[in-house]
Design a protein that fits this description.
By secondary structure, the protein is mainly β. It contains two helices and 15 strands. It has one domain. The longest helix has 20 residues.
């Protein structure tokens, strides 16, 4: 435990120093927008699911966008365990509507074991690959009507053998796990407050049947560090009604 606390403290100190020196994380030009940033979260909770056990995660993001097109990668690395994830993606956005293709590559679980039969990045065999391919649609409304919609379906990879449907489990067939979320942004004390409710329409990765799996709210605050820079922090309160789980996650964006 002492070693973990030392590692976390050192990581946060290092990131704070980098942030102080390089407070601009987005570079814009006529040739496009380059973004390099990272979050540090107290626990990795995504779409109502607790990933990689307990403990903080470092979650970097690298992307380049031009003329509505965006290519990039997101990642998550456990500070106190061996969990690793890298998610390259392609996205196109127009008039608030985005179409995105994401490859969730997860070679190692938090305990260090292989997360699939063959975790090599170029293993494209659906029944042994460490990748999960998802096609998603996202809509983000204007400030006058700040609604958001997300719908994503897994169409390839490590999305099988959950034990819910014998017809699929007998030959490790894909479940086509789907997630749908409705969100709305409010103003609270001069800061944004995101409300969201996500569900899965059928058994699969997100749950054992139709039902809500991710209901909650996310609040933001900027902590003034210098006259020219404020450190963004946030907290997310999450309820997974189907799994009967409750989470409170703190995060810092650098």
């Amino acid at each position: 435990m002492k070693t973990i606390l030392i590692n976390v403290s050192f990581t946060l100190f290092f990131l704070l120093q980098v942030t102080y020196i390089f407070s601009q994380d987005t570079v814009k030009s006529s040739k496009g927008t380059l973004t390099v940033t990272s979050d540090v979260v107290s626990r990795y909770v995504w779409r109502g699911q607790n990933w990689a056990g307990s403990g903080p995660h470092i979650q970097p993001v690298f992307s380049y966008a031009i003329s509505g097109f965006e290519i990039g990668a997101m990642g998550s690395y456990g500070v106190s365990n061996n969990y690793q994830e890298v998610d390259p993606y392609l996205k196109y956005t127009t008039h608030g509507l985005s179409v995105q293709l994401t490859d969730y590559y997860i070679p190692y679980a938090f305990n260090g074991d292989n997360a699939s039969g063959d975790p090599r990045i170029f293993n494209f065999k659906s029944k042994t690959t460490a990748s999960v391919g998802e096609l998603s649609l996202t809509y983000k409304g204007p400030e006058s009507f700040p609604i958001s919609l997300v719908a994503g379906t897994i169409f390839y990879g490590n999305d099988h053998s959950y034990g819910y449907k014998s017809s699929l489990d007998k030959d490790s067939s894909i479940y086509y796990s789907t997630y749908i979320e409705l969100g709305y942004t409010l103003k609270a004390g001069g800061q944004n407050l995101d409300l969201f409710a996500g569900l899965t329409p059928s058994a699969g990765f997100y749950g054992n049947s139709f039902g809500f799996v991710n209901i909650g709210l996310k609040g933001y605050r900027n902590i003034q560090i210098t006259d020219k820079y404020a450190l963004p922090v946030y907290a997310t309160f999450v309820v997974n009604p189907q799994a009967e789980k409750l989470y409170l996650v703190f995060g810092i964006t650098f």
